[in-house]
Structures are given as C-alpha cells and as structure tokens.
Amino acid sequence: MSTEPVPTIILFHYSFSPYAHKITWYLQLRGIPYKQCIQPPIMPRPDLAMLGIKYRRIPLLSIGNEVFCDTSLIVRVLEEKFPKGRLGESGGAWEEWEIWSDQMFPHATALIPSNLPLMKDEKFVKDREDFSGRSYKKEDVDAGRERALEKIRGFYSHTEKVLSDNRNWILGDKMTLADIEAIWPLEWLITLPGALDSTVTVDTYPKTFSWIKRFTTLLPAPRSVKIPTIKGAEAKDIILDHGQASASSTSDIGVPDDDPSGAAFGEEVEVTPVDTGKSHPQRGRVKALGMDRISIEVASTEAYAGGGLLRVVFPRKGFEIKGVSVKGDAKL
Fold first, then answer.
1. CA 317 to chain centroid
2. What is the DSSP letter of 246?
3. Helix, strand, or coil here: 248?
4. Number of alpha carbons in the 13 Å side-chain half-sphere of residue 329
5. Which parts of the sequence belong to the GST N-terminal domain (predicted)?
6. CA 114, CA 112: separation in Å to the nearest integer?
7. 3-state secondary structure string, 186-197?
8. Backbone phi, then psi, for 42, in 5-degree steps?
9. Where are the domains of the chain?
10. In this structure, what are the phi and psi dihedrals at residue 227, rounded to the nearest 5 degrees?
11. Are the C-beta atoms of 46 and 238 separated by less than 8 Å?
C-alpha cells in the first residue's frame, strides 16, 4: 500500500458553468476532497495564464502537476485514481449518456433567454461568439429558439421513456455515473429562468422532473458544503511544487512511432478542440500520446531550468494536434 500523500486536487471553474456542475456533483457525491479556484466566466483568465494555459474551456482540474481538460477526461481520471466507490461500476452504459448530453448542450445554450442581463452585456456576447462561432445577437437567438426547444424536448422525452418502467435511476435501482452524465443539462435548463416553455414542465415530463429532484436531494445542502477557495497564485504554487514529480506522471506513457498525428516526443505542438473554443489552442511539448489522451508539457510564467513546468492533458476524442515551428507555422 502506497504511503505517498494524495496530491491536492484543484477545480478551476465558475459557479454558473453547467459543465462545472457535473464535476462538482461528482466530487461531492464521491466525497473526494478538493480546493476550488474561481475563474471569470469570460476571457481573459489570468490565473490560468500564469500557468501557461491558454485553453479556454471550463472546468479544468489539476491533480499534482497535471492539469486535465474536458469533463469527459476529468471523470475518467477520477474514476481511475479513486477506484473505491467509483460511480461507473455498471460498465460503459454511462458513456452513451455522456455522448447524448454533449450533443444536446449546444441546443440547451441556444435557449438562454435573449432578455437576460448577461445577453445584453457586450463583453459576454463577444466572448461567447468567439467561443461558439455562432451569433448571440438577439434576433438570431430568438429565431433559433423553437428549433432548439424541439431538440431539447426530445431529450426530456428520451429520459421520460427510459424512466417509464418506474425505475428510480437511469440504469435501474442505483444512482450511477449515467445519472450525472444525463442530468446536468436538463437540471441547468430547469433552473435557468425563461429557458423552457409550457411544453416542458413537471406535468409534461413527471418522471424526469421527479428523477431530477431525487438526484438533487442526494447532494449536500449548499450551505453545508465548505469547499476551500484559493487564489490563482496559491493554485500555481501547489501545482508547480509537484513539478519534479513529472517523471513519474501517470500520463507519461511515451509516444508510439506510428501515432496518427505524426507528432514526436518533445515536439512543440498546439492542441485544439475541434468544435468550440478553437481560437485558443494550447501550446506545449509532447510528452505522451495514448489511445485516449494527449499529454503536453507547458511552461508557466515562472518556468526555469528544472522547474516551473506542468503537464496539460487532453482527451484524444474531440481534439486535434498540430506541430508548430518557432514562428507558429503548421508542420503537420
């Protein structure tokens, strides 16, 4: 049995991020201790910039000197590192719900009411247009509302059908990771004033609304949860203090000669999402390319010989790797 202390876990997020809700729910239901570093909802994010991280999607989660990107990877890493009491014990069925929710989420964001104060904030609108690649102008948001509602009603109908045999949870009589993966966009829409209309209510989808209430009842009361909140400088120090442990990183699995990306160990690359946030690629040097993840070494603003380095880890799915020259010209 290892006597090494468990590295500090830090969640970088902001309070109204629905993707962050998924991870905070997971951590709380698993009873995994963590600290949080609250980020602004729009760019720039100086705390992450200090670490050399330009990737813009939230949340990010660090364990030791590794920073994991994308909730799909974060969940898998937590299941691996904390196997006792894992929520994915029912096999891979939860992954179907992960895919379903990710596909539905763009339609959910299209239901953000155009009359919300945030939607009248020029900086927020510009930031979200840069992130999503679509217009957030009032007339465009209003024009796309009915189509988005149609898609979202399909999601509520799907969960209603699954729950029609009076099961309490998505996969049966036990709450699993499938429930977290399925519920986060649906719960977010219910709590977003004006997002849904009279076609999506407790009367039209009673089993789904009861399931959501049953799930949220399991969560600790907000006032009873006291998550340590730290500033960016402290988060940076915690992460970089683990920098010397990078040689034994769990993500350091090498680079196969025949990797489809053509990237080589130590090569400088940019890792970019293929859908949203594409204008903020993350640059670093390749340290590991596996079947399901990419690990690159990134220099913080305090990088120096033998220190100031961290690993930033991405899933392979949904991301692309491009080699760069010193001037930033693509090589691959």
1. 13
2. G
3. helix
4. 2
5. 7-86
6. 6
7. HHHHHHCCCCCC
8. -125, 160
9. 9-85+226-323, 93-222
10. -80, 125
11. no
State the DSSP string of 255-276. --TT-TT---TT-EEEEEESSS
The span from the CA of 109 to the CA of 128, in Å, is 10
3-state class of 119 per DSSP? Answer: helix
Which single residue is written with the structure tokens 């698993």? 30
Contact 282, 239 (CB under 8 A): no
Encoding tokens for residue 47?
Answer: 């705390």
Backbone phi, psi, residue 215, to 5°: -70, -50
**Tokens representing residue 216 in the block:** 């949220």
Residue holding tokens 């600790």? 220
* Record: fold of 9-85+226-323: Glutaredoxin (3.40.30)
Q: Contact, 109 vs 119, CB < 8 A?
A: no
Which among 273, 284, 270, 101 has a CA at the least distance from the CA of 180?
101
β-bridge mates for residue 298, sequence order = 310
Q: Are 114 and 138 in contact (CB under 8 A)?
A: yes
Phi-psi region of 91 (alpha: psi -120 to 50; beta: other; left: phi over 0): left
Can you tell me the distance from the alpha carbon of 262 to that of 250, in angstroms, rounded to the nearest whole number? 22
**Residue appearing with tokens 């990078």:** 246
The string of pLDDT tens digits covering residues 124-177 is 999 999 999 999 999 999 999 999 999 999 999 999 999 999 999 999 999 999
Q: How far apart are CA 91 and CA 88, in angstroms?
A: 6
CATH code for residues 93-222: 1.20.1050.10
Q: Give the global pTM.
A: 0.93
Contact criterion met (CB below 8 Å) for 252 and 246:
yes
Give pLDDT tens digits for 177-199. Answer: 999 999 999 999 999 999 999 99
Q: Which residues pair with 314 in a beta bridge?
A: 294
